C-alpha cells in the first residue's frame, strides 16, 4: 500500500452523475447504496480518480482493490480545510499502517517538472505541449470490459496543465485581462 493522503481536484461542474455500480465478467454485480438504500451517485467521468486507482492498484485484482487496498474518503472542500478532519484522517492512517509518508501532490509535482523541462515558458513563448494528449490525466476512452468504449467528452477531461505554473501565471491572467477584470 502507498500510504498517502492526497486531495484530488473536484470534477468539473455539471458532470453527469450515474449510480455507482460495478459488474464483473464472471457475472457478479453490485450497486453501492446510501443510508436510505438509494443508489449512491458518482460522476460519469472522473479521469483523475481513474488515474489514481490505476496507479495505486499495483496490478492487483479488482476485487482486492474494492475490498480495501485503496481507501477513499469523500470530503467537501470546507471540511477538508478544517484541520481537525485532516488530523483525524492522518491519525487513522498512521494507526493502520505504522508508516507515515508526507502528503504529496503527484499531479502538481509532475506539472512543475514539465514546466521546468520546457524552460519555464511565458505567455509570449507559450508551452509546446499545453493541453496536449500527453499531458492528459487518465485516458480519453475506457473499455468497459464488455467491448463497449466509453469516451470522456473533452470538457470533462483533466490535464496536468491545470495545475502548472504556466496556466496559473500566464493563461489565467490573460483570460482575466481579456474579460476586462484588470483595470
Task: Provide a brief overview of the structure.
With 183 residues, this protein is of the alpha+beta class.
Describe this structure in words.
- Mean pLDDT is about 80; it is low at about 100-105.
- This protein has helices at about 45-55, 60-70, 75-80, 85-95, 105-115, 165-180; strands spanning about 15-20, 20-25, 30, 40-45, 135, 140-145, 150, 160.
- It folds into 2 domains: about 1-100, no CATH class; about 105-183, no CATH class.
- The protein has a two-stranded antiparallel ribbon with strand order 1-4. A two-stranded antiparallel sheet has the order 2-3. Strands 5-8 form a two-stranded antiparallel sheet.
- The protein starts with 16 loop residues before the first strand and ends in a 5-residue tail after the last helix.
- The longest helix has 15 residues, at about 85-95.
- It contains 6 helices and 8 strands, in the order E-E-E-E-H-H-H-H-H-E-E-E-E-H.
- The protein is globular and about 55 Å long.
- The protein is about 35% helix and about 10% strand.
- The protein is of the alpha+beta class and about 180 residues long.
- A hairpin with a 5-residue loop joins strand 2 (about 20-25) and strand 3 (about 30).
- The relative contact order is 0.14.
Amino acid at each position: 500500500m502507498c500510504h498517502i493522503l492526497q486531495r484530488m481536484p473536484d470534477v468539473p461542474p455539471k458532470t453527469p452523475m450515474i449510480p455507482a455500480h460495478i459488474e464483473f465478467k464472471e457475472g457478479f454485480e453490485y450497486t453501492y447504496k446510501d443510508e436510505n438504500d438509494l443508489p449512491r451517485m458518482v460522476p460519469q467521468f472522473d479521469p483523475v480518480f481513474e488515474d489514481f486507482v490505476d496507479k495505486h492498484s499495483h496490478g492487483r485484482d479488482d476485487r482486492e482493490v474494492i475490498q480495501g487496498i485503496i481507501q477513499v474518503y469523500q470530503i467537501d472542500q470546507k471540511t477538508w480545510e478544517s484541520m481537525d478532519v485532516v488530523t483525524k484522517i492522518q491519525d487513522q492512517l498512521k494507526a493502520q499502517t505504522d508508516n507515515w509518508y508526507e502528503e504529496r501532490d503527484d499531479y502538481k509535482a509532475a506539472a512543475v517538472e514539465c514546466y521546468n523541462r520546457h524552460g519555464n515558458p511565458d505567455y509570449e513563448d507559450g508551452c509546446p505541449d499545453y493541453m496536449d494528449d500527453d499531458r492528459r490525466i487518465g485516458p480519453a476512452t475506457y473499455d468497459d470490459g464488455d467491448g463497449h468504449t466509453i469516451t470522456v467528452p473533452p470538457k470533462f477531461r483533466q490535464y496536468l496543465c491545470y495545475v502548472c505554473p504556466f496556466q496559473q501565471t500566464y493563461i489565467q491572467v490573460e483570460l482575466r485581462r481579456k474579460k476586462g477584470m484588470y483595470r
